[in-house]
Amino acid sequence: MGRDVDDRKKRAALRKLRKAAELAEQGKGPPLSDWERQFLEEVEERIEKYGSAFADPLKGQEGEALSQLQHVKLKEIDKKARGKGKSGFGQTKGQKNGQKNGLSRRPPPRGRDISDDIEDETPVPDLPDTPPPVPQPAPPPPRPSGRPAFRVIEGGKTDKDS
Hints:
The protein is mainly alpha-helical. The chain has helices at residues 7-26, 34-50, 68-82.
């Protein structure tokens, strides 16, 4: 039993799948892996049979033919088939001639080198062999002896109130 998916969305998804497979066969980009080829075939088969390529409603919108992850993977396969590079954390448009990502384009932090302040011939004062005594904490105040006193607070609950 298939899900209720709009026919236009089914046709659009099938068209994208077939177009990606067609472009991959033309050889404009690197050849598709076995997994990618199998992915395209199985997703196309599920859309034709069930109207949607996924069953879990949490993985995509209700009226869509492809889940969110299937849609992302189809876009990656389509880019690969067209011979375009992957998007992601790689080189961007602004990076040329071996420049690195945006974080490494920053100048180095302005810090001091701790060895700059040390003079080589400064004599070190003699330190005592034993460490200074550690002060002991003060003892806690003594506790009162005997049982605590019981006090009745006026204005509390009485037997008449209950």
